[in-house]
Hints:
- The chain is an alpha/beta fold.
- The protein is built from five helices and seven strands; from the N terminus they run ααβαββββαβαβ.
- The chain folds into two domains: 1-33; 76-196, Trna Endonuclease, Chain: A, domain 1 (3-Layer(aba) Sandwich).
Amino acid sequence: MGAVIITGVVVVGVAIKEALDAYALEMGEPGVRPAPETRPVPETKPAPLEPLAKRRPKPKPEEPDFPPLGPPEFSERERRPECMPIPVPHMGGNDPHNECADKIPNNSFPGWDVFVNGKNFDALQLATRTLWDVKTDDFDKHSRRSQQFFIEVKLPEIRRERKLAAECGYDFAVGVRSEAHKTALNRADPTLKVFVMNWC
Length: 200
């Protein structure tokens, strides 16, 4: 039995040796083999890359009549209990004021104020996460001196409301009934977002 195994191994070894010798003959000796044929690769110029600005033109921002719709974004601060918007009854009993607030485009809670971060806001556009303060005073009927006094009295509260909204990740807008009122507020604080409520 042992002789059969040894004989088998020898036969296989001889067969492998013969195959290797035959391969070496076909390829020739290492120093005699012909050099591989090479062909020059034609040179091509790379296509010029256009600047990114040319490929993707940026849209020009335009000032809308009211904040545009967009997907809501949520962060940890917006999940705090005081930042969750709670619809509450209108305050003050001023019907024309409440009607203006209710008609704000895309108002998520018409017929209600919205309680956020300890403050009642006149409206909320959930789609843009914008809280609103509505001013329905007859601003244009007053003298310039009275108008200036009115702005000075109201501005600290408007800024406080904007700060409360921002603490919870909301944008803030002020709605007014006239272009003169909007201009006076923007002159006093150019960072305010003020919109003329054409629907009032």
